[in-house]
Amino acid sequence: MKKIMLLLFCSITSIGYAQNSSSLEFSVSGGISSPSSSFSDTSFASDGSFFELSSAYYFSKFGVGISIGSFSNPTEGDFNEFTNQLGYPVSNSTEDWKTSYYGIGPNVKLNLGTIDATLFARYGQMATKEIALAGNYTSENVDFSTTIPVYNLRVPEKTSSGYYNAGLKLGYKITENFSFYVTANYLSSTSDEIEIESRSANFQDLDGDGAITEQEILKLIGSDISYSSTSTLTKLSMLNYGFGLTYKIPTNTKVRKPMQDVKANKQHKENRGLLDFQKPDKLKNASGSIVFTNPTKERKKQQRKIILITPKNNSSFEEISAMPKFTWRTVGERIMQPKYGVTVEKINSNGRNILKTYFETGDKPTMNAKTIFKDSPENGNYRWKVTELSTGTTSKYVENNSQLILQ
Prior knowledge:
Layout: H1 2-15, E1 23-35, H2 37-43, E2 48-58, E3 62-73, H3 76-84, E4 91-93, E5 97-112, E6 115-128, E7 131-140, E8 145-155, E9 159-173, E10 178-189, E11 194-201, H4 214-220, E12 227-234, E13 237-250, H5 258-270, E14 277-278, E15 290-292, E16 305-310, E17 315-317, E18 326-331, E19 340-347, E20 354-362, E21 366-367, H6 369-372, E22 381-388, E23 393-394
Antiparallel strand pairs: 1-2, 1-13, 2-3, 3-5, 4-7, 5-6, 6-9, 7-8, 8-11, 9-10, 10-13, 11-12, 15-17, 16-18, 18-21, 19-20, 19-22, 22-23
């Protein structure tokens, strides 16, 4: 338990350096449990199944997770194969290895485009129940019947030990809250604490042909049969791999009050992210110019929004080639794989009617003027805005007049 608390402390300390974007996840997974050769060779364990429930709290990319699960490994196939090689009939009784565990440890989440990769590690306790395997030779005779124990293996009592595991999850988002993932992890007990006892009969090759037959065993009935016993300490270890589902709950989402929604809707109508240009009669340059007016600096808010940067307020351009790039930035909650739409509209002098619209999309917060104006724009008044298409977030509308005049 001291080691678990130390691991938890180290995890929380490292998380303290992360950004403030928290979430809570619940996962369920299952699949194949494949024992290592060192464990399988001493226990007759073969491929079985595992089931696990887990939860993780993320402070950002870093988090702390807990897991509880179990796995089961059958022994019948490998034990039958072993006794079939003896050369005489043996009836077997077997049990499955059954182990349960719980642990705690760090999680690290990485974004690989549409795939979320999660690295995790756990340290905790595991318990393996007692198990007994037996192979017996039974003789049926008109005068008598007898059963001779040939081989048996057992773990005499329930065994508890520490364990550790480390693994990877690759998740694909199905909805905003649900993800499907595949997973693989290596799990091992921390020490050789599982004691396996085995006992086998020492039958004699009476005719010296190198094989023990049923007839030779029948001759031993009624006499003392010697046995060899061994005791082995083994480490339980295996590879678990399968798939699962994750449900995510963002924990930094604030509940909006009805009055806040009314104010937000009102401001959305007033601030649609459009940018106007000055009226022609306010320009003194006879050769013509392009004048952009952008939003002034805004106070930093918690909600997500788009702020226009260039062209700067009251800047003038006599031709498209002299214009800087259209640039903007997004503040607030991060948008994963954004898709921006830039709209430039030609309007009449009073700004009430739209005469022509230019529209172009891109995935970066910048765009060349020539990309938007595929042909030379006409003289007149213009305004523009930027909209993030997946969320509907739109840049602020500013009531300034400006125009575009070209020779």
